[in-house]
Write a structure and sequence with these properties.
About 25% of the residues lie in helices and about 25% in strands. With about 325 residues, it is α+β, with helices and mostly antiparallel strands. The longest helix is centred in the last third of the chain and has 18 residues, at about 245-260. The protein is built from 8 helices and 15 strands. The protein has helices at about 15-25, 80-90, 100-110, 180-185, 230-235, 245-260, 275-285, 310-320; strands spanning about 5-10, 35-40, 45-50, 65-70, 70-80, 120-130, 135-140, 150-155, 155-160, 200, 205-210, 225, 270, 295, 320-325. α2 (about 80-90) crosses α3 (about 100-110).
Length: about 325
């Protein structure tokens, strides 16, 4: 899963201990290691923290924050098609020292700038600090699978995978946003970009922003840019396909999606509910594997909500290595 945290502090009153404490609130997201780096510029401090859950390239070479020339990166997530992007970048003259998707992000940003995201298939929350241009680039994946919170209070910019990291910075003030509280009471959630605290926001799915760190001039209302919208996909012209062609193309798209998610240097499992979605994913994965896929189901005591019997039937039919809890 991984977790990221950090800051831009124009008062220069932060420390590596503060960065470590912020980042280590996310140890449950990344139990395999932690990395912390502070950059002292003429006008501010930039802190980047990372908690690692190792999935691709388990070596220390792939640890974060990761550096490539003037770029420094922390990210939470996975770029599923990183091997294709890496091959494309190698043809453009790039050379790599790890087998990680993290390094591919850095080189892609060096090559294409903000347009690099158009090459990515995956789930991600990414922060890149350019120490030559003195700017920070923050981006969230198209569907918002990976969380990204940010805050701006009195010359202090904070970002993290979870809000609890902000509370570890002594200059962060936890003032409730009562409009957000009202939304939570009414809807059971707080819609993006709003947040439970004042001066805190969620970066919306399919959005990014850049901040100059040369001087304390950016406002609390950070201007975000949308790079993708699901409505654009909905509004594409309909394809002229018969039933059989639609069936074949749908299966090809689903097969490609599940194959991408099998790219890992650790074992992969599937949560199986017995419903259409997870059963379809499991069937496609098991069909393309030479060994049994591990499937997992969590049963519940409420007989009206318990899907374990259906999952067990599917697991037996597909002959997976099934585990029920």
């Amino acid at each position: 899963m991984c977790g990221i945290a950090g800051f831009i502090d124009f008062s220069k009153s932060s420390s590596e201990q503060i960065l470590t404490e912020m980042t280590d609130t996310l140890v449950h997201r990344g139990p395999d290691g932690g990395g912390y780096k502070i950059f002292n510029t003429e006008n501010c401090q930039v802190g980047l923290g990372h908690r690692r859950l190792s999935i691709i390239d388990l070596s220390d070479d792939a640890a974060q924050p990761m550096k490539f020339e003037e770029l420094h990166l922390v990210f939470n997530g996975e770029i599923y098609n990183f091997k294709e992007i890496r091959s494309q970048l190698e043809q453009l003259g790039h050379a790599f020292t790890t087998q990680s998707d993290t390094e591919v992000i850095l080189h892609a940003y060096k090559q294409w700038g903000t347009q690099c995201v158009n090459h990515f298939i995956g789930m991600f929350a990414i922060v890149i600090y350019d120490e030559v241009k003195n700017e920070i680039f923050c981006i969230r994946d198209r569907a918002g699978v990976k969380p990204f919170f940010y805050a701006w209070q009195d010359g202090l910019f904070l970002f993290a995978s979870e809000l609890k990291a902000f509370a570890k910075h002594p200059r962060f003030t936890k003032n409730l946003n009562y409009d957000a509280v009202a939304s939570f009471v009414q809807y059971g959630n707080i819609p993006a970009p709003h947040c439970i605290y004042q001066d805190c926001f969620k970066l919306q799915p399919g959005h990014y922003f850049k901040l100059k760190v040369e001087q304390n001039t950016f406002s609390s209302k950070i201007e975000t840019q949308q790079y993708w919208s699901v409505y654009s996909a909905y509004n594409q012209p309909k394809k002229s396909l018969n039933w059989q062609e639609g069936l074949q193309q749908t299966e090809q798209i689903l097969q490609s999606a599940v194959d991408y998610r099998m790219v890992a240097d650790v074992p992969v499992g599937v949560f199986l509910s017995g419903g259409y979605d997870s059963s379809c994913v499991t069937a496609l994965l098991q069909k393309s594997q030479n060994q049994q896929i591990k499937t997992f189901t969590i049963a519940v005591p409420d007989i009206g909500l318990n899907e374990a019997p259906y999952a067990k039937d599917i697991a037996q039919h597909l002959e997976t290595d099934h585990h029920e809890y």
